[in-house]
Amino acid sequence: MPNTFMAVAMDLPDNGSPFGSIHPRDKDDVATRLVAGSLNVAYGRNIAFQGPFPLSLVRSEQNHVVLTYPNDQKLHVTEQGSFQVCCTAPCNISEPTPSPSWTWTPIISHQHPAITIDTRACINSGGKAEMIRYAWSLTPCEFKKCSVYNDQGFPAPPFVLPVSDMKL
Hints:
This is Sialate O-acetylesterase domain-containing protein. This protein is α+β, with helices and mostly antiparallel strands.
C-alpha cells in the first residue's frame, strides 16, 4: 500500500510489564521509529526508517546461503541465533518454532552488505536449503538484541524467503 509504513518493535519485549507484554513500557524507542517513518513517508525526508531487508538469498559453492542486503544501510550483526532453514519442500511457514521442518542455523560470517549462514545440515540430511526464515517466533530476541540491525539502530523485520539456485 502506498504512503504507509510499519515500525518494527520485536526487539523491545517487556514480558515483565504489569500491563501485559503487548504494552511495553519503553515507548521512546517505538516513538523514535514511528517518527522516522512519518518523516520519510508523509514529509518526504530522505532518512532511514526501516531495518535492513534482504535483496537476495543465494546458495554458495560451500553449501551456505548468502543473504545480500541493500548497500544504503550498514549492517550491525549482534547475535547469531535467529535464522532457520527448511531443507525439504514444501516448507510450511506457519509451523511454530521449533518444528521438524525448520532447523536453527548459525551465521558463519558477515561483511557488509552480506550475511552468510551455515546450511550444511541440509546437505547432511539429503536435502538443500529451500527457504530461510528470520526472527520467526513469538519473542524472537531479548531487549535490543536481535541478530541484524542497521546503523540507525532499526532491527531487520521478520521474513520467510526462498533460496535461489544461482550459485555465487
